[in-house]
Write a structure and sequence with these properties.
The complex is a heterodimer of chains A (358) and B (284). With 358 residues, chain A is α/β, with parallel strands linked by helices. Chain A is built from 15 helices and eleven strands. Chain A folds into two domains: 150 residues, Periplasmic binding protein-like II (D-Maltodextrin-Binding Protein, domain 2, 3-Layer(aba) Sandwich); 149 residues, 3-Layer(aba) Sandwich (D-Maltodextrin-Binding Protein, domain 2). Chain B has a single domain, classed as MetI-like fold (Orthogonal Bundle). Chain B has a two-stranded antiparallel sheet with strand order 1-2. In chain B, β1 and β2 form a beta hairpin. Chain B starts with 9 loop residues before the first helix and ends in a 6-residue tail after the last helix. Classes of the chains: A alpha/beta (358), B mainly alpha (284). At the A-B interface, α3, α4, β6, α8 and α15 of A face α3 and α11 of B.
């Protein structure tokens, strides 16, 4: 009898010990970000939805919560400047055109690459002390295949091919203040024979195109392709891909800029704010952003070119992405990249405004 | 005992003044300092931004576009809104209240939704262009993007409901018996409008036009969405200057010019109407 009691007691103690240990382990594992709210400044719409699909559930499983501050990087940068660096967010999407201003103001924290192991899968030039690359985008001419055939217009290969009377008032182009505005404008400037310090040839070419609308959000192009307002658009290959997936028969052309230069590249970056009180969570977010799984999702759904080398290989198997995007490293190297160190953005904007204003 | 009820107005006045005037003052004050870019301003009191505005044809043109689109929108709101308001005001059936309620509800709809409604109607495949092309009146679709006509339509759409409500209250103050008397004495219908209704409604119409004009001068959404990045009204320019170019003091200057222009145009309009009335140019 005594033996049985002792055995029962022993089993209970063991069970309690195992239970407590397991509970502690669970708490330690699940609660990595217990009570942490991470604020991420990024675009809204499908861009944010990608994060909500893959990254947010993982962060919530760790006990934390992610809030999005949506807007273009320019608008979020304005919020940052207005708050004198006390940003209402912890992580921010940054465009290549903003890098110099960001560094000048010094609002970004030095990154701890030990907390971002996925950076081992990205090229060294896409890592810097305060920022890490997040995606590449390819700026293209997106055109409606059926409508072009109907009108007897050949497939465009350069921006100049959009200067046709049949296309007057049927083209959209990114506004200079939109996310892709500077890159596409720069591409047109180079294609027209100008450069970073002489943009007038590009402005003349844009005026010759007889553009219907200068869009500020890529989603507008999708809606305008659907409504029949436009049959060609200049902008991110991602929006061309999304338009095709929405059922419009469009395809992308990577425009010839000059001999040996085809297509226009734009690069996205991520940085952590100095004012952030949750830098570990911010680093965790960046690591997830750079994961193969997320980069593949981003590429297939939003048409961005992954910077994770493993993801690039995976994405080659997606037929629409393979049609819309250039995924060969040698071809990517031929793309026009704007040298923003030579650009005074306010001068570009000023000349643009005066040229396109009615 | 004399009760000083007006004392109750002091707290709301102080709160309103602090929220509106003080915040505006802080913003507008920066217009008198040099813009150094990236949200930075100089510390020396200068008029450089104002000199830049008044000597630069780009800014002056933006001011003119703003006044022109707002003026046209106010005028078309009157032209379209007055017959509707008149009909409702003179209706004796219960439909009057139902129609009025419909107009009130339409004013609650957010401007973004209203503008997107216009975009759908005026798209290349939309109702308006299908009818236009189908009837042979035009060979290519009419677009409301990237031109001042589209912005005027957008502004008018924004203010029409409000305008009709204002005009309805004006028409209601004009006794129907005056119209009847004029007609009994042989006046034709158009003459009744011209010699009886219009003169009596003129002070109210002036107020309505100015209110709608003021609303349009400050309207951003319609101009931004329909302007297509090509029609730069002052509110659009303020947004681009402050939010995109991050030039606070230049943005504040444009805002100050807009404010002063609106006040000046209002004072001038009231002065002109008074002069006209004094000279019996518009009265019977």
């Amino acid at each position: 009898m005594k033996k049985n009691k002792a055995m029962t007691f022993g089993i209970l103690v063991a069970a309690a010990t195992i239970g407590l240990t397991t509970a502690n382990l669970n708490t330690a594992m699940a609660g990595q970000f217990d009570g942490v709210t991470l604020r991420v400044a990024t675009w809204g719409g499908s861009w944010k939805e990608n994060m909500e699909e893959l990254i947010v559930p993982k962060f919530e499983a760790e006990g934390g919560k992610i809030e999005f501050v949506t807007g273009s990087p320019q608008a979020n940068f304005a919020k940052l400047v207005a708050a004198r660096g006390n940003a209402p967010f912890d992580v921010m999407e940054i465009l290549d055109a903003q890098v110099a201003d960001m560094m000048e103001l010094g609002y970004l924290r030095e990154l701890d690459f030990g907390l971002i192991p996925n950076t081992s899968n990205i090229a060294d030039f896409q890592k810097s002390e305060n920022m890490v690359g997040s995606w590449d985008s390819q700026e293209v001419i997106c055109y409606h295949v059926d409508k072009f055939e109907e009108l007897g217009i050949p497939r465009p290969t350069t921006y100049k091919d959009l200067v046709r009377p049949e296309l007057a008032g049927k083209i959209s182009f990114p506004d200079i203040n939109s996310g892709g505005g500077l890159a596409n404008f720069g591409g047109v400037v180079h294609a027209a024979g100008g450069d970073e310090t002489n943009v007038q040839p590009g402005l003349d070419l844009i005026n010759d195109m007889q553009i219907l609308k200068f869009w500020s959000r890529g989603g507008e192009t999708l809606a305008q392709f659907q409504s029949g307002d436009i049959i060609a658009s200049v902008g991110n290959a991602g929006w061309c891909l999304r338009t095709k997936k929405a059922g419009v028969n469009v395809t992308s052309v990577h425009p010839v800029i000059k001999e040996g230069v085809v297509g226009v590249a734009k690069v996205g970056w991520l940085g952590v704010m100095k004012s952030s009180e949750v830098p570990e969570a911010a680093h965790w977010f960046i690591n997830e952003y750079l994961s193969e799984e997320f980069q593949v999702l981003f590429a297939t759904k939003s048409g961005l070119v992954p910077i994770n080398k493993k993801a690039i290989e995976t994405i080659k198997e997606d037929p629409i992405a393979a049609e819309m995007l250039v995924l060969d490293a040698e071809e990517i190297a031929k793309e026009q990249r704007i040298d923003y160190s030579k650009v005074t953005i306010s001068d570009w904007t000023d000349q643009w405004n005066r040229s396109v204003a009615q | 005992m004399y009760v000083r009820w007006w004392l109750l107005l002091i707290p709301p006045f102080v709160i309103s003044f602090t929220l509106v005037a003080a915040s505006q003052f802080v913003f507008l004050e920066s217009s008198f300092f040099k813009d150094l870019g990236l949200g930075r301003i100089g510390d020396e009191f200068v008029l450089d931004n104002y000199v830049q505005f008044v000597t630069d044809s780009f800014f002056l043109r933006a001011l003119w576009v703003t006044i022109k689109t707002s003026g046209l929108a106010a005028l078309f709101t009157l032209i379209l809104g007055f017959p509707v308001a008149y009909m409702i005001a003179r209706m004796r059936s219960q439909w009057a209240m139902i129609l009025l309620a419909g107009i009130v509800i339409s004013t609650f709809i957010t401007i973004v939704i209203k503008v997107y409604g216009l975009i759908v109607i005026f798209s290349a495949n939309g109702m308006f262009n299908q009818a236009l092309l189908g009837s042979g009146l035009a060979s290519r679709p009419f677009s409301i993007f990237g031109n001042t006509s589209g912005v005027v339509i957008g502004l008018m759409h924004f203010t029409l409901g409000f305008g009709v409500l204002l005009l309805y209250s004006i028409v209601q103050t004009i006794p129907k018996s005056l119209e009847d008397a004029a007609q009994i004495h042989g006046a034709k219908r158009w003459r009744v409008y011209y010699r009886v209704i219009f003169p009596l409604a003129l002070p109210g119409i002036t107020a309505m036009l100015l209110m709608v004009f003021n609303m349009c001068m400050g309207a951003f959404t319609s101009a931004a969405l329909l302007g297509g990045g090509r029609v730069f009204t002052l509110p659009v320019l303020i947004q681009r200057t402050v939010m995109m170019d991050i030039k606070y003091s230049l943005g504040a200057t444009i805002a100050a010019v807009l404010l002063v222009s609106v006040i000046a145009i209002n004072i001038l309009s009231i002065f002109l109407v008074r002069r006209m009335r004094a000279a019996h140019l518009v009265m019977v």
